[in-house]
Design goal:
- The protein has four helices and two strands, in the order ββαααα.
- It is mostly helical.
- The chain folds into two domains: 43 residues, no CATH class; 52 residues, no CATH class.
- The longest helix has 16 residues.
Length: 96
């Protein structure tokens, strides 16, 4: 299974994987992550979701300008947060 963990916070975790990769290993990882808590599972086509998100972000001029400025900052190396892999793992575990 090659599920990709895209986002995780104390409230939400997003995985991206092919439907054929849904198996007991995936279920075990979800159970391990959330324990006995009640969870909600929403499923969507990842391609459509990405397109919808992009359209939403580009809907207003203010958003478009903010995204342009953020890209310029990233390309120039400004306003970036750098974490080692170890620090990132530590931060993820603290939110659980």
């Amino acid at each position: 299974m090659e599920a990709t963990l895209l986002w995780q916070s104390h409230m939400q975790t997003t995985y991206r994987l092919k439907a054929a990769e849904l198996n007991e290993t995936f279920l075990a990882s979800v159970k391990s992550l959330f324990g006995e808590r009640e969870i909600e599972i929403a499923i969507c086509d990842a391609t459509t979701a990405s397109e919808d998100e992009t359209a939403y972000l580009l809907r207003t001029e203010a958003n478009r300008q903010h995204l342009r400025e953020s890209l310029e900052d990233a390309e120039a190396g400004h306003n970036l947060v750098r974490l080692s892999l170890e620090d990132l793992k530590k931060a993820a575990n603290e939110e659980r």
